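Listing 4. Sequential folding, example run.
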Amino acid sequence: MAGGLLILVAVILLSSGLLPVASAVDVAERTWSILLFVVAATVVAELAAAAGVFDAVADRLGKAAAGRVVVLWLLVVALAVVATVFLSLDTTAVLLTPVVVLMARGRGLNALPFALTTIWLANTGSLLFPMSNLTNLLAAHTLGLDAWEFAALMAPAAIVGVLVPVAVIGVWQRRAVSGPLAPAESQPLEDRTLTLGAGIIVAALLPALVSGLPVWLPACVAALLLGVLVAVRKPAALSWSLFPWQIVVLAVGLFLVVETAHAHGLSDGAAPFVGQRTSFLALLRLAASGALLANGIDNLPAYLALEPLALDPLRMAALLVGVNAGALVTPWASLAILLWHERLTGLGVRLRWPIYMAASLVVAVVTVTLAVAALSLAHP
């Protein structure tokens, strides 16, 4: 609904001349490959879930936990980080959440720390590689960085983005993530051939995404291979709903509307608030501005609004810290939070927004501050 309205607004802006045709063409040339990757990666994640890959991995984690809840939780942390870094934050928030929640319930555990792990790490952990977050893909394209160059820039902040939420959950939910782990019956695979084949395709995709190839290419190949495999073994899982139409339409609308705002002086108006320097305080100011804007209107438009003021690599890194790791507090700060909450509601997990927002505020403030400090120290 919102995406459709934004597209309508963009068409009106374009037809009225408020959005120059040349600017719209530039947006299309810049974003087609990014949006193609988003579509392909989403299809890969959805088909992998339908093939039982995530369920099988979760079952193996339970066996590897050595009878301790804390070990199981730390293994979930590792799984959430890998899923976020390589398959994007939406994969972790939307597809991994129900898997780990059901896994926790099946062992008589409180599902809250596992649910918080997926959503906080989906956002704060999405700093390392371009494919971890749509904002990262845009930033890497703007800076002209490949996956490893981007990782070299963002690694200090990415490490902080993992450690802080894990520390907060470990302290706050220490009783829930401690003690012996009750055994659970191993769930038989619905179709071993399907799960194994899908797992091999996903495992091959991960290194391909950081191989130097354009990320949309291996993602599209993996999506095609998974589509063929699922069509043969589980055809009922194939549907048009696999494609993230709403996200793509929303993104296209935002790209064009914000580009119109930039054409009419948005950057000049925002410049006094975010500064231009690369000192620690200047970077923190930029990151805080991105976080505030993200929690006010969503992280993607926040990034698009401030990107022209962050073209220096270090300033771009600080902006990403703000709009990714800082986009935790309000339910609409990132689409991942809304989708995560929808999944929790479907699972019957109660979430008190005031408590969530208060805890997320602590995580966001500490993460953004320490991540910017880490960037400043690593890139003086």
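-- end of first protein; second protein begins --
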Amino acid sequence: MSMIVNAVFTTKVEPAYDDLPEVRYHFPKTYLNQVEAALDNWIVYYEPRRSTADLSSSGGRSAYFAVARVQSITQDAFQADHFYAHMVDYLEFSRPVPFNEGGHYYEAALRKADGSTNKGAFRRAVRNLRPHEFEAIFAAGFARIIGRDPLERSEPDRVPNSQPNFLLAADNPAPAFEHELPAVPARRIETKLVSRPFRDRAFASAVMTAYGDRCALTGLQIIDQGGRSEAEAAHVRSVAQDGPDSIRNGIAVSRTVHWMFDAGLLSIADDYTILIAKRIVPDILQDLPPLRAKLTVPARADLRPHPSYLRFHRENIFEG
């Protein structure tokens, strides 16, 4: 039996802090207790409505979009009273999960007794979760992978004095700091989240959705009668080389182009220009669908390949 304390970490498209969700989460001392409570456990990333620190900004999804595990916490050496949570096992949902879906709040503490949103609780960038709340967000985010209705509700953990799932009102909110929860056994969710087959399916689903089932290098979109795409998801920095299962570390490519990319015959510049290895003879390219001059990328900037992963591929894989 072990204590399970999950959490929500809020990060913007253009964060005011030094966040790179796949690797690190930067936060002020205000939230240290909540982050420490989630150490060695799984958290959910949430993207708010505001996409930047500017109070007038918008464009955020107001949705949970990924999970990760807090591996360690260190103090920021350069900014007083700030810390880093170092993250591992990052994995994006196959569908972003709205915080309020069909009138249902996945975090009970965000719902007032009258059914309105508890804005005071919402303003907290780090919030601890009850285990059944984390499980419900997990099930909704990976519904396509586990073959489940996104709005299907799981039963709450049967712990002493537990209340019916998702009915905790503002007059009896989930505690901001969850150490007082009774110990509950580790869930089978963790087995899925570290399983390579599950992660491969989730990664492929998220990447192919972001790229519209279209090869980013050729622009071709070929779908068979069963709805399967000829294109497939490729890691820019491979898992074997410690690359994360992140959309920003992925592109959709046709199968032949995938092989060429992994073999270092193709790569991508920071401005998304497609690079071709000098040792490729022109005749080979004539037998392929024409490569575009630049990669076709998602409209949202935060879903495009991250420069650090592109640089790794150019410096370690590309034979140009």
